[in-house]
Amino acid sequence: MALLHAEVDSLSLIQTTKFPTINVPVIDLSKPNSKTLINAWEDFGIVKVINHGVRKEVMTKLESEALDFFSLSVTEKESVSDYTSRKIGPNGDAGWVEHLMSCTLSCDFLQKFPSDLRPTVGDYVFSVRNLAIEVLQLLAEGLEMEEKNVFSKYLIDDNNDTIFRINHYPLHSDVPEGHSLLGFGEHTDPQIISIIGSNDVEGFQISLNDGSWGSVSSDPESFYIIVDDLLEVITNGRFKSLSHRTLANGSKDRLSMIYFGGPPLTADISPLISIMEDGEESKYKEFTWEEYKKAAFKSKLTTHRLGAFEIE
Ligand SMILES: O=C(O)CCC(=O)C(=O)O
Ligand SMILES: [Fe+2]
To answer: Where is each Fe2OG dioxygenase domain found (predicted)?
Structure first.
């Protein structure tokens, strides 16, 4: 193994040769099939979406503007209030990643992004939110819910607490052959669903039922939509929140753009009665999103955060 730079030494190195590539099920939103969505989320906690209605120009523009931003000097980047490097959350988690992050509709989020990016981020988040609503409506249809917006109402609400983040996994010249750096460690996302777009650089991995890791191909034309903690609760565990992580391979920089769909802070979260079978008991205590969010942000990335809210 090559002599490592001290910086690489302090980050987790992962051997990259042994991961299988997962065939993530695809839904084509020009002919949506709710059964495919349900099966994908039941089996893998992830689905790939094509013909999603988000314009290619907006996706490519954001990708190129974001890469321009991340190529600025550290001083210039650090002058942006929502820019963070190497730190993930407030509890000491670190990774080979830098990011821009802001809440979206419930705050003046555009002001927190660098001014050059604001128009494109605005267009992107507007379209991706519509996509989130459409997919959650498809879920309601597939589960034969009476109310079309039973899941999407949280994101339709003007006070929704959604976050938008752009992650950049920079190049690193000292990563030994056959290895990657841990860019973003194992975790689940606390919200309802996350919609992940990326450039054509791989690195995103999902935890499989046997606890091993599988790689997800990068596809800059499509989105991956994953099950987050709240959707697990709302469906009483029918869908499990997806444990995932991202590796930075050091030779090509990955960029990902993620919409984390969250409900209003005051929303009461509990399993939907209409989804439970006769006699089925709730597996989770009731909580508000604000309570859960506070607990989630106090914990380490890898903590099984729903554990504290499960009924024994
Ligand atoms: O950047 C990625 O590939 C995924 C990162 C992630 O999981 C997150 O930001 O929550
Ligand atoms: Fe995540």
So the answer is: 159-263
Q: 1 C-alpha vs ligand 2 centroid, how far in Å?
A: 31
Ligand nearest to the CA of 88: 1
Atom of ligand 1 nearest to the CA of 97: 1
Residues 162-176 have pLDDT tens digits of 999 999 999 887 888
Own/partner pairs, 286-291, CB within 8 angstroms, 24+ separation: 289/161, 289/230, 289/262, 289/263, 289/264, 289/265, 290/265, 290/266
Residue 272 Cα to ligand 2 middle (Å): 25
ipTM of the complex, rounded to two decimals: 0.99
Is the pLDDT confidence value at 1 over 50?
A: no
Q: Which domains does the chain have, with CATH numbers?
A: 15-298 (2.60.120.330)
